[in-house]
Each structure stands twice: as structure tokens, then as C-alpha cells.
Write a structure and sequence with these properties.
It is built from three helices and three strands; from the N terminus they run H-E-E-E-H-H. It is an alpha+beta fold.
Length: 123
């Protein structure tokens, strides 16, 4: 790919990053529990029904693991934030890949433009 094309793709990635809204890392899981209290539906021998679902968000940030419960009304927003973070990670990885390729091309161009005596080292 040419330098101009790489630079154009980098600019496209930057524009996509600017469109991202609120984000958060982690994963959201759905939990069910059984309280085991006598007479409760969760211990019914014929048709046990666990309590739930409860939503749990788990993530690690700055080396610290955190788990939080998320109320059901906030689940859609948390899912959107998690998706934004995933997109952020993908876009930044694309940017780094393109930047590395651009640097490689620039170095090749500089090397081929340099006089032969500057590129060879003789003792």
C-alpha cells in the first residue's frame, strides 16, 4: 500500500474513534441463585425455580479486578458501553498496524533516497 493510502486509512480510524460514546471494559454475565430457604420455590423437589436473573459486570482496570452487580434497567446501557470498548480496542489495534506499516514504508523510502555511501558502512 502507498503512504497516502495508509495515512487515509489512519484518518478514517481516527474519525471512527471520535464517534464512540461512553465505554467500559469487562464482561456481563447472567447469574441465578438458590436461597435454600424451606418452602421457597428454589428448593421445590418437583419444579425448582432459581432466583434471578442477576447481572454481574466483571473487569480489570489498572491491575485491579472488580465485580459489580448491574440492575436490570441498566443492562442495555452497560452492553452498549461494553460494545463501544470492544470497538475502541479493535480500532486502536488497526491504527497501530497501519502506523507500523507507514513507518516501514517511510524508512524504505528514506533508505532508497539516501546516497549509497551513507547506507553502507565500511571499515
Amino acid at each position: 500500500m502507498r503512504q497516502e493510502q495508509l495515512q487515509a486509512q489512519i484518518e478514517k480510524v481516527k474519525a471512527e474513534l471520535l464517534k464512540l460514546g461512553p465505554m467500559r471494559p469487562g464482561s456481563l454475565s447472567q447469574q441465578y441463585s438458590a436461597c435454600q430457604k424451606p418452602g421457597c420455590k428454589c428448593v421445590d423437589p418437583a419444579h425448582p425455580q432459581k432466583h434471578g436473573p442477576f447481572y454481574q459486570l466483571s473487569y480489570t482496570h489498572l491491575g485491579k479486578s472488580t465485580t459489580q452487580f448491574v440492575r436490570p434497567q441498566f443492562v442495555p446501557e452497560v452492553r452498549k458501553q461494553l460494545a463501544n470498548y470492544k470497538k475502541f480496542k479493535t480500532l486502536t489495534q488497526q491504527w497501530v498496524t497501519l502506523a507500523l506499516e507507514l513507518c516501514k514504508l517511510e524508512m524504505q523510502k528514506a533508505r532508497s533516497a539516501a546516497p549509497p555511501s551513507a547506507t553502507t558502512h565500511q571499515s
